[in-house]
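#onboarding

Welcome to the new folks! Below is a worked example of what a typical request in this channel looks like: someone posts a single protein sequence, and someone else replies with the predicted structure as tokens. Don't worry about understanding the tokens yet, we'll cover that in week two.

Example request:
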Amino acid sequence: MTLAFTLFVILLFTGLPLYANLGLCSMIYVFLGGFTPITVLQRVTMSANSFTLLAAPFFIIMGNIMNNSGVTKRMFDFANVLVGRLPGGLGHANVVASVMFAGMSGTAVADAGGLGNIEIKAMRDAGYDDDFSCAITAASSVIGPIIPPSLPMVILAVAAEASIGRLFLGGIIPGLLMGVTLMLMVSIYAHKRNYPRAPRPTLKILCAAFREAIWALMAPVILFVGIFSGIFTPTEAAVIAAFYSLILGLFVYREFTFKDIPKVIFSTCETTGVVLALVMTASIFGWVLSVSQVPQSISQVLLSIAHTKILLLLIVNVFLLFVGMFMEGTAAILILTPILIPIMVNMGINITQACLIMIMNLMIGVITPPVGVVLYVVANVGKVPFERVTRATIPFLIPLFIVLLLVTFVPWITTFIPNLVFGN
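Example response:
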């Protein structure tokens, strides 16, 4: 195991795709350990044969269609009408639009790429600093994977064998808290820099903006009502959401055409292929770790250091924040879930809370250098240097850390709604 793990660490710095790295190191261990190759095939097949994982491509295609059908602009316009009259109005609209879009896209990159272009341009035209515009766009995009539907939650549910419905519901309060704390941060900047506010909208303007956005806003409503009522499962909700977004783009807003479908399908297949490759190779790598007693060894070390639940949670948070700085979130979820989730659960931490702690830490990683993928997306969209975006985003980590601490040490924030719907 030492040879395989050493090679894994070395290959991380070579630029080799992570799924290839995981697969290669796992195969080396299998052959050196005297296991039969059929073991690898069985583990890979079992990991891919998951009903829950079926939600991933449908949420991906829904986000792609929404990004190409004018939904993002309508949602931002509606958010601006709602909160634009506050000091720093467009900054608040940026956050509110991300909260709304989170109920459809499920990923931070989709939020930053889809809404980012509209938000940064609008803020730049209104006289906002590029630093602030890019920073709040990057920070608010982290809400995307926390408020359901969420692609990382689907993957984590598969890896942790947890209820995807509970994870979805558990992310609602943390996601809303992230929005509130980011808006407080926007208010501080607005007062310091004297950012403008929009005039109070008339009832006519408010109704017009609502009419334009109502069909888009209905998407998360349909998902929640369907899941709460038991009409369909969270996995089936992904299929409904994808179909609804297609109808919306083709026949309601009519900014998405049949000619765009092949491009969207190709993009979805490409993203799904990478996700599935990671899931399959991470599964066999997780099996290798398990056979080598790595999780048990790490568990013993952590439990010997952390004699209390609070200390364990602090250590896990620091470790995950560090990992998030250097590893892509999906890959980290697949590798670390079999190790960390059982440790936290054995210490009496609710599995829904444990999973949300993991997701929040790793999603904060998408806006921390050097691998902060959202920072690169925002820098590209805003045509602002990466280093400048990074420096501007650092203060916005404070409200996200505050919410992370609340999620870590106040369990009911993540368990209240799931327990209300599904019972204890």
